[in-house]
Amino acid sequence: MDFDEKPSFVLGGNAMMVKLSRFSWSPLILIILLALLSFQITSKAVYPVKIAFTSSTSKDDIMADSRTCVGFFGELPERKAVLSIRDFGGVGDGKTSNTEAFRKAMRYVHRFGERGGAQLNVPEGRWVTGSFNLTSNFTLFLEEGAVILGSQDPKEWPIIEPLPSYGRGRERLGGRHISLIHGDGLTNVVITGNNGTIDGQGKMWWELWWNRTLEHTRGHLVELMNSQDILISNLTFLNSPFWTIHPIYCRLLTPTAFIYCLVSVSLMRNLVVKDMTILAPLNAPNTDGIDPDSSTNVCIEDCYIESGDDLLAVKSGWDQYGIKMARPSSNIIIRRVSGTTPTCSGVGIGSEMSGGVHNVTIEDLHVWDSAAGVRIKTDKGRGGYIANITISNITMERVKIPIRFSSGSNDHPDERWDPKAVPVVKGVSISNVVSFNSTKAPVLEGIEDAPFDGICMKNIRLLGVVSSPSWRCEFVSGFADDVFPAPCPQLQMDISSSRCSYS
Ligand SMILES: *[C@@H]1O[C@H](CO)[C@@H](O)[C@H](O)[C@H]1NC(C)=O
Ligand SMILES: *[C@@H]1O[C@H](CO)[C@@H](O)[C@H](O)[C@H]1NC(C)=O
Ligand SMILES: *[C@@H]1O[C@H](CO)[C@@H](O)[C@H](O)[C@H]1NC(C)=O
Ligand SMILES: *[C@@H]1O[C@H](CO)[C@@H](O)[C@H](O)[C@H]1NC(C)=O
Ligand SMILES: *[C@@H]1O[C@H](CO)[C@@H](O)[C@H](O)[C@H]1NC(C)=O
Ligand SMILES: *[C@@H]1O[C@H](CO)[C@@H](O)[C@H](O)[C@H]1NC(C)=O
Ligand SMILES: *[C@@H]1O[C@H](CO)[C@@H](O)[C@H](O)[C@H]1NC(C)=O
Ligand SMILES: *[C@@H]1O[C@H](CO)[C@@H](O)[C@H](O)[C@H]1NC(C)=O
Ligand SMILES: *[C@@H]1O[C@H](CO)[C@@H](O)[C@H](O)[C@H]1NC(C)=O
């Protein structure tokens, strides 16, 4: 089939097929087609669970009461056209390249954007592919046993422009490799399935990094730019070359951009709760789990993440480029995430935060065998701010430094960074923390010319601190209440809720 010349409409990957020529839609054919389509949709259980982008319940109620963002979506959007990657010549044998099949499929389903949307199913099998771009009003559905494998040919991850808020590739000057699954300017996209897998096969890229032969910045597994109404759920992501999920400039007026790592179906339909899992070898460089970047209204829930870098890091651009772009990350909720990263942090803010980060709630985290639990990282030259961050209910085991603020990694995009651009850190509240067998008490290092202010610690129990039980604080101020071991004098034992809340 040649989808470019003769658009063919394949229904649900079965034998029924209606051929139409592109510009000669007769109204009759259209009506018949729509009738066939609705028959197809209703006769087939396409979605195991219904989630839609509109909900009758008040969004604020859901966020406040049930502590899940699932309700924001209500039901999964139904798509008029349902296709299979096989319809585009895809072969799931683990060897054949499906790059053209996926790109052809995406060009084809793009036509349904304004006509009820489309769903592309990836059946059981191993589907090797280079990068491809998603489209709006679209669902990518990985059936049980479906594995999408990232191509081992770097040319299949073409070079794209650097992000304006970074001014260059994060690792190398100039452009960067596109992500395996990419989207720009999209609305209403769902990436989900019955615990199917997207495996970036990043080893080749990590080796290029290790042996210093990487020419351009590595690609992410999934990157969505300038997009809204996104749901990523119920899948396993493996071996990303670089950061695993990177939503950037997803700025929304209504709270609708979410990543559900685990769709808490139990809260909706009383079914079994299923995890989404993000895994990379513990030594794989820069394989962050999820990095919301210059994005607003993001909800990340119920993830299990094991990787070679931060499980989660909230970012907003790099030094003068991020300052110029001034796109903050805000209104972010992260909860019920567990995992381990031996050399990095459970949850981090920064180090790139030059567009500002505010109104972030992080709760119900379980982190073990990691370098840090909660980490705020910034530097001179970053500018921007970190404000109104609320972190609570964190459990840690064998985390070297459970709470760490640091500055001064001296990691700048180029020589043009401004040493006078100091970040403002104001209003970070951390409460209800239990940590077992840490190496050190918290290390809180602010910036000399710009001390971190309004740091509030409440109900913190750091038990079995092995080597260094006294807090180390420099250029920070704030309050502490009910904290063990005793905090540094910079955090006065004089808490009052008014002094710890920032508005
Ligand atoms: C997506 O679908 C909505 C509702 O049908 C429609 O209004 C919108 O134009 C579509 N967007 C795109 C980019 O196709
Ligand atoms: C995907 O989109 C990027 C820009 O966002 C573009 O450079 C690239 O050519 C597109 N790839 C395909 C296969 O269309
Ligand atoms: C998630 O995957 C499981 C199978 O692993 C399936 O039973 C469930 O219906 C899926 N849920 C969604 C929302 O796709
Ligand atoms: C670096 O790693 C790549 C990817 O594994 C490999 O192809 C290349 O030969 C290596 N180069 C050196 C100098 O080791
Ligand atoms: C999904 O698959 C991964 C392995 O691919 C597995 O570790 C995980 O437990 C599975 N999750 C569920 C809910 O079945
Ligand atoms: C802070 O973010 C939450 C969502 O995380 C949102 O409900 C709330 O309205 C935001 N507050 C402000 C003042 O923007
Ligand atoms: C604290 O977080 C854990 C998960 O790490 C969760 O099981 C527990 O219910 C949470 N406790 C409260 C009081 O929210
Ligand atoms: C903490 O260390 C003690 C002594 O080595 C050990 O008995 C205990 O199991 C450890 N607890 C955790 C949670 O690692
Ligand atoms: C600060 O964060 C809290 C908790 O997310 C939120 O309720 C409040 O509205 C935020 N205030 C501002 C000014 O962002």
UniProtKB/TrEMBL annotation:
Its main location: secreted. Keywords: Cell wall, Glycosidase, Hydrolase, Secreted. It comes from the Eukaryota. It is found in: Secreted, Cell wall. PANTHER family: PECTIN LYASE-LIKE SUPERFAMILY PROTEIN, PECTIN LYASE-RELATED. Belongs to the glycosyl hydrolase 28 family. This is Pectate lyase superfamily protein domain-containing protein. It comes from Salix brachista.
